Amino acid sequence: MPLKYKRVLLKLSGESLMGDQDFGIVPDMLDHYGTQIKGLVDSGVQVAVVIGGGNIFRGLQAEAAGIERVQGDYMGMMATVINGMALQSALESKGVFTRLISAIEMKQIAEPYIRRRAIRHLEKGRVVIFSAGTGSPYFTTDSAAALRANEINAEVILKGTRVDGIYSADPEKDPNATKFNTISFAKVISMGLSVMDMTAFTLCRENDLPIIVFDINQNENLQAIVRGEPVGTLVEG
After folding, report:
1. Cβ neighbours for 72, distance < 8 A, ≥ 6 positions apart
2. CB-based contact 98:129 (threshold 8 Å)
3. Closest CA to 233 of 173, 193, 174
4. Which residue, of 2, 23, 167, 179, has the greatest Cβ tally within 10 A?
5. Pairing of strands 211-215, 233-235
6. What is the pLDDT of residues 70-109, one digit of tens each?
């Protein structure tokens, strides 16, 4: 079956790597991510990844710990680099060629972000892992995902979550919540639904970059999405 999407940006949460733990990285979850991404690469899809750092440190936690906001945000960026290194190792153990790219220079472990070089890596079939957010405080990894996806001309952002799409309310709290198969950017805003932070969401809306929210824990979902099958919730228009 032909592919609907040939270049995607996959947004993963760091919290998913915790599994049932309170923090850190569960090997089974790391292996799951690696297997799913390898499946895309084997299908001929060009894959970029942005992964959060909430399993290690969240910048928003900094104030409660007495850490100044900007310093805390940089600490959160470092957490995404650790997760990026872990994901890189998981992928390379499966025979997938990767490049870890950091928005903050740390040449011993990651390449600096250069747009044309990142695109060239994708064209050569390498998985590009973008780490350290945007390199600036006050921006989330959602914003980094939206920014990088637009810069590399990705066709869609695939936001992997633990629920199977966007609902009218939190399905874990409200049994009457209804799922949307497709929804417009305007309706997400008018209903106050949580998809991405507003900076990221606006960047996608202004550049007509669709977002698909889906359950990353279901093994076949990523493959189905790139073939154009209706999985999760599509945000566009």
Report:
1. 57, 59, 60, 61, 62, 63, 65
2. yes
3. 193
4. 167
5. antiparallel
6. 999 999 999 999 999 999 999 999 999 999 999 999 999 9
Q: Evaluate the CA torsion angle 156, 150, 15, 45 in order and state its sign.
A: positive
Residue with tokens 């405080």: 137
Q: By the 8 A CB rule, do 68 and 60 touch?
A: no
Q: How far apart are CA 222 and CA 47, in angstroms?
A: 11
**CA 177 → CA 169, 173, 193, 232, 234, distances in Å?**
5, 9, 12, 15, 17
7-12 and 179-180 strand pairing: unpaired
**pLDDT value of position 60:** 64
Q: What pLDDT is attached to residue 51?
A: 95
Q: Quick count: other Cβ atoms within 10 Å of Cβ 128? A: 24
Task: State if pTM tops 0.90.
Answer: yes
Burial class (CB in 10 A: 0-12, 13-18, 19+), 52: buried
Structural domains in the chain?
Answer: 7-235 (3.40.1160.10)
Distances (CA, A) of 209 to 18, 85, 233: 29, 28, 14
Intervals of the chain under pLDDT 70: 1, 59-60
